[in-house]
Specification:
- The structure is a single chain.
- The protein is globular, with a radius of gyration of 19 Å.
- An eight-stranded parallel β-sheet has the order 5-4-3-2-1-8-7-6.
- The relative contact order is 0.15.
- It is an alpha/beta fold and 303 residues long.
- The longest helix has 19 residues.
- β7, α10 and β8 form a beta-alpha-beta unit.
- The protein has eleven helices and eight strands.
Amino acid sequence: MPMKAGVFALAGFLLTINSSLGNAADRLACGSADRPIAIGGITDFETLADPTATVLLRATCKVRLYLHANAVQRASDRKRLDGIFVVFRDTGPAGMEVGLQTKDPQIRSFLLNWIPAMIKRYGAGADEASVNGLPYNMSQQQLVDWKHFVDIAHYAGFHVVSPVFSPNGGQEPLDFFSPVYNNLRAAALYGGGITTDAPPGYFRGRGIAYQEFTKHEIVWANAHHLKSFSIFSPWGNAFRADTQAMLVALRKSNATPREYIFENYNPNMPSNSPTAIGRDTDTNSVSGVALWLARHLDGKTIE
């Protein structure tokens, strides 16, 4: 439900006060540095309110916040959410992950009411959205519906609206350039990006055809000057080793995403799991693997 403008102003004012009380040592002098890594997720999301959990990661000046809509909806404590945005206040606009809405009243309510209300309520900006729920073999009418969704999202301030797709549910054929995916590619071209969702552990075990599909999505997006996003989420407990192996494979094929999204979207995972969001000093946590990549991203090799 949208909030009144006066309430928005009050919420922003209170958040400004809270921000001004933060530890000055936590403020980062990153300027307009490019931030190719985003961090978020569902399980253990509220850990990000602890500034000590990501102090090393944020100090790299390569990370921004990633808001999964389900995480914000599930969060139990408003103050903790405020705390997350205070911690990440200097990292620029957040990325978002949302579900596709197909009916016009729902689209308008979601994009023009719910999302702006959430952003204003918690004091965060968002400029790019990865969208779940597109059929891989979408019809012409579904493509029209997608374009309508994107148009409203652009009006709401999202510069890139990217369909999320990897063939994780047995979709065939495993050929990204098949005519089956014509409208998916058209949706990406219209929205300005495409997001792969290939968990590194799953990527390693799925086989060559799946791996090539993932690579082709990224290479194609880059060749068409789209924003290529890749979601990295745990699949098993060797998250860092799996991520490293996957990135080596991608780089060998010149399939380099423009943004690396680190998240854990398993709602049933215990918050004390070694692959929860965790702390950036934890080897296999979401934060820890993001920090590992941030420290190796500029090198010629990540092996």
